[in-house]
Design a protein that fits this description.
InterPro entries: Rab-GAP-TBC_dom, TLDc_dom. The chain is α+β, with helices and mostly antiparallel strands. 45% of the residues lie in helices and 12% in strands. It has 19 helices and ten strands. Strands 1, 2, 3, 4, 5, 6, 7, 8, 9 and 10 form a ten-stranded antiparallel beta sheet that branches.
Length: 471
């Protein structure tokens, strides 16, 4: 909205004048990485103000150290208000990940870079490992994002940020791989100045020096970055999701405090989202005949299974058979443009189960290159769950495997007669066009048992939630 930013500035600071004194930045900022990239004193004050207003508008952002440097780069080219609007788009994006917003996801990113490096740039990864112990290597990977934002020359960084705005965070992964490849090529020779730096001050110091003195042009650098084969978005997403699940499960099992934020709040909804969930579901049939403490525990368990970035949003009831009737046409009208969605089923026998659906139901109408409608769609972030009487999560089998058969990549399917979740040797959830009857089988995609005894079920209520920004 035009003028909204300046209204927020007045609300936060009481004036539109740039303050003379330093501004207290939000806690998600990393003070040691407030890079201003040659901005004047006035420019730096503008960055501080944009970041502060963003923190005020989005209090659920826990840890996001790249927000400040991205703001600083934007202010070289656009106005303060436009910069704020751009940052809101990046923070609020659900279709692509641009900016991680929790400490857990920040840890997931560097572990993802480390895993991808060991598979797709083996030579450079081995070279790095050879010159330091495992602990020190991990510390180097922990700083991967600062190889880019703090290390690379301005002219390289700007070209990379342009690509980032178009493609999302995967551009940074490719950038990190390119840095390792070029560093390895330049430093392998015994006569290299960087080899001498390695011997004198360590490989981490040499890598930092290399980034600052990047010996190739921005065009050549990007050619290396985008020339890495096999580094697909699907593969990166699979590694990222697998790493996130491992970290979350380790925290739950061990109560580890090694993550920068405790599990007591990391995996649970913020207070506003929790209130919204309970408020939305309060009068619905899902919670009928269920003790309050069982219902609340079930709700929080389900929330802890969601991807962390989705827990930053408020759940919105899109469709319920109680209010909108039992029609597949109505289901599509109300649900199909939302991504992701959470589908909950309560049977007439009081079983409660469902699925987190990562893609829009509207994709059922998309066609392949030959003009044929695609039977199945969705991504490996989709998962099944059972909440009552048993509580269990069934993620995609491909998360734990480098390769899977086609029958294990059947996530979602739909047409005018039915909707299906999961396939391959059975359908995990199948619902008819009247949204009254369904069946559940074991399937290859999620390696799940039938979600209710007997397999066939009659639907008492079906609810679908989307996720929107907090107001």
């Amino acid at each position: 909205m035009e003028g909204f930013y300046w209204e927020m500035v007045k609300q936060v600071f009481g004036t539109m004048e740039l303050p003379d004194k330093p501004i207290n930045l939000p806690p998600f900022v990393e003070p040691s990485h407030c890079h201003s990239y040659y901005l004047t004193h006035k420019g730096r004050a503008a960055v501080d103000r944009v970041v502060s207003v963003l923190g005020y508008a989005y209090p659920d952002i826990v840890y996001s150290p790249t927000i400040y440097p991205i703001c600083a780069l934007l202010l070289h080219y656009i106005s303060e208000e436009e910069c704020y609007n751009c940052m809101v788009c990046l923070v609020a994006s659900k279709e692509k990940t641009f900016i991680t917003q929790t400490k857990l996801l920040y840890e997931v990113t560097w572990k993802t870079v480390m895993q991808i490096s060991k598979k797709h740039v083996k030579g450079p990864a081995v070279f790095l490992q050879r010159h330091c112990n495992t602990t020190r290597a991990e510390r180097i990977y922990m700083d991967w994002i600062w190889w880019i934002f703090h290390g690379l020359p301005f002219q390289h960084l700007i070209r990379i940020i342009d690509c980032f705005f178009h493609e999302g965070i995967k551009v940074f992964y490719r950038t990190a791989m390119a840095i390792l490849i070029l560093f390895y090529k330049t430093s392998s020779s015994s006569s290299s100045e960087f080899q001498a730096e390695i011997q004198k001050n360590g490989v981490d110091s040499a890598l930092t020096k290399f980034c600052r003195e990047m010996p190739v042009t921005p065009q050549k650098f990007l050619k290396v970055a985008f020339g890495i084969r096999g580094l697909t978005s699907a593969y990166i997403s699979r590694v990222f999701i697998r790493t996130e699940m491992v970290l979350k499960s380790k925290t739950v099992i061990s109560g580890s405090r090694q993550l920068m934020r405790s599990r007591s709040s990391e995996n649970l909804p913020n207070s506003q989202s929790q209130n919204n969930i309970q408020m939305v579901s309060h009068t619905l049939t899902i919670r009928e005949r269920m003790p309050e403490e069982v219902y609340n525990e079930m709700l929080l368990t389900l929330w802890s299974w969601l991807p962390v970035r989705i827990t930053m949003y408020t759940p919105i009831l899109l469709y319920t058979t109680e209010e909108h009737g039992c029609s597949l046409t109505t289901f599509y009208v109300r649900v199909e443009q939302h991504e992701p969605t959470l589908l909950l089923i309560k049977t007439c026998n009081n079983e409660v189960f469902g699925a987190y659906c990562s893609s829009r139901w509207g994709e059922r109408n998309q066609k392949d290159q030959r003009g044929n409608r695609q039977a199945y769609f969705g991504t490996g972030e989709t998962f099944l769950f059972s909440l009552y009487p048993e509580r269990a999560k069934y993620p995609w089998v491909g998360i734990d495997a480098d390769r899977v058969e086609h029958g294990a990549e059947l996530f979602m399917a739909a047409d005018t007669k039915m909707i299906t979740i999961g396939g391959g040797d059975g359908q995990a959830i199948w619902i008819d066009e009247s949204i009254r009857f369904g069946k559940t089988d074991a399937c290859s995609t999620f390696n799940n048992p039938p979600l209710c005894p007997g397999g066939d079920f009659e639907i008492r209520v079906l609810e679908v939630y989307g996720f929107g920004m907090n107001e």
